[in-house]
Each structure stands twice: as C-alpha cells, then as structure tokens.
Design goal:
Number of strands: 14
Number of helices: 3
Largest sheet: 8 strands, mixed
Strand content: 35-45%
Structural class: mainly beta
Shape: globular
Strand order of the largest sheet: 1-10-11-9-8-13-6-3
Length: 256
C-alpha cells in the first residue's frame, strides 16, 4: 500500500473519526517480520456471531447495496474511474483500474464475543510486484479488523493514533501467517497474508483472531477486546503495471 494507509487510531472526538484517520495512513507500512502466528486452539463447535454476506445482491446500484450493509466509501472508493465496485451475484468485486487506494469502512460491526474470522474470497489479478517481503505493501484485497477502542500510538506525531488492528490479505508469494509490521503502528498493527490462491481461485481462510491478538498485542492475556469495526481495502499505489488489480469477497464471518 502507499503512504496514505489508514490510521485506525485517530485522536478525534469520535471513534468513527479515529477509524477513518487510521485507515488512511495505515497503508504507509514498511514491513518488517515479527512474531509467528498464535497457536491454534482446541476445536469447539462454531457459533456465528456476525456475518457479512456479499452474495445477496438483488438489484439497483451496488453503492446502495453496500451502504445498506453499513459500508462508507473512503479515499479512491469514491471514484469509479479509479476503483470499480461490482458484483457477479456471488460476491463483491473490487477492481483498481490504476494506482489507487480504495477503502470501504464499516463501523456498524460490534462483536463483544469472538474467536475466529472466516473469509471466503479470492484474487483475479494481483498487483504487479506487490510484496510485503520486498516492502511493496500493496494488495488486491485486504480485510481490516479493529479490536477495542483504546487508542494506540502510531509512532509519529504526524499520524493519528488508532485502535489495535489486524489487516488480513491474500498474497502471491509472501509468507503465509507471518505478521508483518509497518513503518507506523508498530505497537498496534499487524498485516498477515492468510493464503496464496491462484488467480480466480475461491478460498476460505480461517484465522484465530483472539489468539493473534494475544500473541501480537496482549501477552499478559488480561484484555478481552470487542471487534469495534471492519474495513475492506485494495491498494495499488506502489505496485507496477499501472496499478491494476482485482479481488473479490463473498462472505466474512465472525465466529465464537
């Protein structure tokens, strides 16, 4: 992603303002490799806490359909000449037509009890040269999960603070499960590739959010955060090939 990455921890008067600021500057991450993913917990019966289903489009403008789900268009997601939002009936398609950062914020998500997140998604076209290993922090699709309301320092007085967050993405050749650290939010943010699908392949990625939160941010294990927001983004501001990329998401499920 480019240097406009969102800053999820703004110090504005409302949490909404904070999340929007955070997401605008988070994408400025220059990655460094951090700790490994948290250990898997014993299997327990799934209970769906909340689900965003992108396979239920019926008719009308796609923008209206997304707004009804609680999404707000930020950055280049407001401009169809830069970021195209579409659906094939099975899910939401996000296409970056050029170097752009499209962001869909959803602050209506509030899950006080959770453990895993499960995402059904894929990539039709990866951004050329995108790689967190090589510090080209771009991706065709990323799902941000914001944890709690505490404002954590961005590490720079120029960048507003934000809640803890984990950005989950699909990659072409980065390390799966590796929590990358960016230039900012080194204390409160991580970026994790969940799968390396072939172009056009639909994958279902499952990630233990609570174990990751404990491993990355709460080693004492004495904090139980709520999921206080979510965002879907696509950033090609630093990639080659004109910044073209296309990702899709069918379903995002929070599981206890």
């Amino acid at each position: 992603m480019n240097d406009r990455r969102p800053n999820l921890e703004a110090t504005g008067p409302t949490r909404a303002a904070g999340l929007r600021w955070a997401v605008r500057l988070m994408l400025a991450a220059l990655p460094a490799v951090a700790m490994g993913s948290g250990p898997a917990a014993a299997d327990t019966p799934d209970r769906i806490v909340q689900q965003i289903d992108f396979s239920d489009y019926a008719e009308g403008p796609v923008e209206d359909w997304l707004q009804a789900k609680g999404f707000v268009f930020e950055e280049d997601a407001k401009r169809r000449d830069r970021v195209e939002l579409d659906t094939d009936g099975d899910g939401l398609i996000i296409e970056n037509k050029r170097k752009a950062f499209g962001l869909l914020m959803n602050e209506s998500i509030n899950a006080p009890a959770f453990k895993h997140i499960e995402i059904e998604w894929g990539v039709n076209r990866f951004p050329e040269g995108a790689s967190y290993e090589r510090k080209v922090n771009n991706e065709a699709i990323m799902v941000y999960v914001f944890l709690g309301d505490e404002r954590v320092s961005s590490g720079s007085w120029l960048v507003p603070d934000s809640p803890y967050f984990i950005g989950l993405f699909l990659c072409k050749d980065d390390k799966v499960g590796e929590p990358y650290i960016g230039r900012y939010f080194q204390k409160g943010g991580r970026y994790v590739c969940l799968d390396r699908p072939e172009p056009g392949e639909v994958v279902t990625s499952r990630f233990d959010l609570m174990a990751a939160y404990r491993t990355y941010f709460d080693k004492e294990g004495d904090d139980d955060p709520v999921i206080s927001g979510m965002a879907i983004a696509a950033d090609t501001g630093k990639s080659g090939g004109g910044g073209n990329a296309e990702g899709f998401v069918r379903r995002v499920t929070l599981i206890e």
